[in-house]
Amino acid sequence: MTGKKAVAVILGVLILAASFFGTARLGKDQILPAFCQTEIKNGEKQMKKVALTFDDGPDPEYTQELLDGLKARDVRATFFVLGKQAKQYPKLTEQIAKEGHLIGCHGYEHVNLKSLSMEEACRQMTRTADLICGITGSRPMFMRPPYGKSHEGMEEKVQMIEVLWDIDTMDWSLRDPDRVVQETLAKVEDGSIILMHDEFQESVDGALQLIDALKKQNYQFVTVDELILE
Ligand SMILES: [Zn+2]
Fold first, then answer.
1. Catalytic: 55?
2. At the topology level of CATH, where does 47-228 sit?
């Protein structure tokens, strides 16, 4: 350590100590420095959390609009992408990661993994993970098998955590944003993982309306790792 650096470290410690002992003498109604405001931090923890998840993309027609809507609302979501879509639309895939969303693997093709051998099923996930890692620079830690069906023991083999959902919005079959919002609001609770798809206009509209409605109910939007690894 150089002399200058050592002086800077000592000064830093002294300033921290001074501010700590200084605030200890403050009255209750006086304003505390940000790092002392534990009450506000606890308040944030008490907010209800929900994770929006989007499967089957990225989609050249609808993912961009969804990303813009999420950005405008300062909301982070999780995208379980298909390897073949990510390969075809690497820029969109990269944008998803750059904008702070979490990317997980949905398989290379949209296939029921139970219809494949263990080795083929694992390959669906590892091939997708390799591809995503090549595009975004980070290897996905989470997977969601199509239809929620996978082989027992797959998680260990591919070294990914399986993430299913507790609310299926049925957006792909309802194709009706108002119903998606109403039915989801009737079921949502703290810690819910909501399944949607970024491949239909009605899904994008429904997701953005749902965000606005959930915000009014004091929900905070997190990526699935924040719910699962907490
Ligand atoms: Zn799917």
1. yes
2. TIM Barrel (3.20.20)
Sort 91 into a burial class: Cβ within 10 Å, 0-12 / 13-18 / 19+.
Answer: exposed
- Taking only the tens place, the pLDDT of each residue in 103-156 is 999 999 999 999 999 999 999 999 999 999 999 999 999 999 999 999 999 999
197 is catalytic: yes
> Is residue 91 a contact partner of residue 228, using CB atoms and an 8 Å limit?
no
pLDDT tens for 19-71 read 444 443 333 344 444 444 444 444 455 689 999 999 999 999 999 999 999 99
Which one of the listed residues 101, 197, 198, 205 is annotated catalytic? Answer: 197
Residues 134, 18: Cα–Cα separation, whole Å: 48
Q: What is the whole-number distance in angstroms between the Cα of residue 53 and the centre of ligand 1?
A: 11
Domain boundaries, the chain: 3-42, 47-228
Q: How far is the CA of 110 from the centre of ligand 1 (A)?
A: 6
Which of 55, 56, 59, 171 is labelled catalytic? Answer: 55
